[in-house]
Amino acid sequence: MAINDENIHDKDKKALKHFLKGKEIWNEYVKSHSEKVDFYAVNFSNLKDMKKHALNMRSLILGMPAKELLGYIYTRMLKDSDDDLVGNIQFLLEYVHATLASAEEPAEVIFDEAKVQELLKLSRELKEKALLFSIESSLDTENRHFKDNTADIEFYLKSKWVSIRGNRYQALEGEFYSYVLAPHNDALEDAYGVGATKISEGFQDIASAFRMGITNAQEILKKQYKDYLNFATEQHGKPQQDIKEMYEQINSDKRKAKNLALDDLLEGGIGNVSRHTKLPSCLLEDLAYQRGEETDFFTEDNFAGTPYATLPVRKKPLIKLGLEYYAIDPCFIRDAGYRALIFKLLERKPKYKETFKENQKIMSEEAFPDILRDQFPRAKVYKEVYYKEPDTRQWVENDTVVIVDDVLYLIEAKAGAQATIDSPALNFERHSQSVNDLIIKAYKQCERFFKYLDSDDEVCLYNLDNGKHEEIARVRLSDYRMIVPIGLTVESFAPLSSFYKFKKILGKHAFISISIDDLFVLKRILPTPGIFSHYIEFRQSMAGISNTYLYDEFAHLGTYITYNRYDQKIKEGKHDWMIMTDMSDLIDKFFESESWETDPVPIQEFPDEVFKLLKALDTTQSPGWLLAESLIRDYGEQQRKELANCLSTIRKTTMKNPSGYFVYAYGDKLLFVWMQKSHHDIEWKNVKDKGSSVALCDNNRLNMIGILIEVATDGIYDNAQYFKVNVPSVQTKENEHIFDDAKLMNSRKNRKYP
Questions:
Q1: Phi, psi of 141 (to 5 degrees)
Q2: Helix 353-371 to helix 516-525 angle, to the nearest 10 degrees?
Q3: 685: phi then psi, degrees, rounded to nearest 5
Q4: Torsion of Cα atoms, 347 then 348 then 350 then 353, to 10°
Q5: Where are the beta strands (DSSP E) in 340-490?
Q6: Residue 465 and residue 472: Cα distance in Å, rounded?
Q7: pLDDT in tens, 313-353
């Protein structure tokens, strides 16, 4: 099997080894075997090994004091930059949680660093065995939920069930929870005494404690030690014990801060949500296991104790240790916290269930244009759009249509949870049904809408008002350069949402699945309509390239920021299979920074002159501006420099003359730029005629767009707007001056190409 590994780092090739091996085995098996093989029997010893490893880990964990063990693990994890080790530690923490949830605290426990190292070893081996099992058990699957793709999809589901951790950025936890809990504010206040704002602040506090707790504790201890040294120096030779007692007596107020810092550093205190948040105990209790409460995980069932059983942390992410509540795993308080909270809320308030569904539906359907309001300042937004399906003539509904210039977005929102907590190994049908509910149904609804748009030159859209359908808009599919079908989920559904490749709608338009989680990142990194639209153009293109995979939305975003239109390069090459890894690093590092809120966001670099043009196009936002931005943003580094030189040269000329123009050619596209002083009236006929003459001079004359720039006397671009360059095919009396001008240009070789 061929694989393009240009973007695969050495440390990732080991992680991909099992995946590629599995694909090769599967292909060879299909070619050479017709009989059925009992893969369960083949995997039985592997399954027994997993159970044995899990029980050994449980025994080691139970033999040590929980808080001291957590303190050691947290410090090791947060200090180490090795991604593989951090991933293995996070995997281990799930088993720490499972052990504490399933057993009372023993009478005697002793911390042993050697046993922790043994735990890390067993954890790594268990994870490796589980990933190998995901391959072997998927090769001859009898499931056909995804037809010919079922084996691949089943492998993805199983392997990511084992390895996926923490797909949201900790810095944005509060923002996410604030948004998705706001519709249920009254119910939350009634159930817990606090509303969406306080709860979202609490979840952000949990994330921040894990994110910054060790560093903050170290800083407190360093400062107090420095203060003590300064104090001791001033005591002029007094006995050390006397100095210490005097210092503690004078600074008794600092003793508590020191003890808490030591607790954070050594006793797992950064996970103590009772101390680090103001969340009410009744809410924490709903999200937490008591010691020994879990009775199902470590049993004699086939998958019990293995990573393919439903780990307790997926149900309730907290543990009660003594009188306080702890978030054992810094990722699953985020990955499972939202679903666990909603489940418990509805358990406390069963009569709220129907209202919850309605509020959740409204929130999810409005999320795309609401969260991205800065990206869509002048957009037309149509909600709950009705129309008669051409085949059945029945009224049907789609969620949200957003129109920005020549781009039409259709958003089908699915308000369900991220995925069932049932393991794909235990119940593949039920697990994969969540894919059908959250992704495939959205695709089908998008497909239905665009088939309606394609059914006539112009179609009508309706709202339902008091039982009557009222026309709200008429839409022509031909008016839009881009149509983008999007399935929107509340939480990230990666990697399946990125890996699942759908047939292009109408043979042209690839389907994208993203989440509300993702939107909070995209709004920061892609702040203008132009850059957002250009990213979506790249993103949709990537979604349409088969056998090419990035892990999640942030991997796509990192690829775009780093390599721009990398999709165009992929299409030019030949590959059977491509996986691009580590592409989110740029985005990850930005949100890991302590000063991320004030740091400049990761961006593509543009020369100042080109950046001024893009800014002017965005300010003016005349029809066609997104097409103009798309052409300019498609340019690579060298082309951007060349365009900047052209702009700078013509701007200096325009300072002396009323106007000037140039043409920039790259590939099969021409960019015609007319620049003039702002205080001069625009003579559009002259501008467009000149553009037409220039287009006639070039063999690729139909692939030209025009931009008119108005520049102030100080060189600032006041306005910039797109205009269409018309190319006459037949010379007439009315347009002969255009043909004459073109002939003159050719004779003088007056084309100003870089």
A1: -60, 140
A2: 20
A3: -60, -45
A4: -80
A5: 380-388, 395-404, 407-414, 459-465, 468-475, 482-489
A6: 11
A7: 989 999 999 999 999 987 777 778 898 999 999 999 999 99
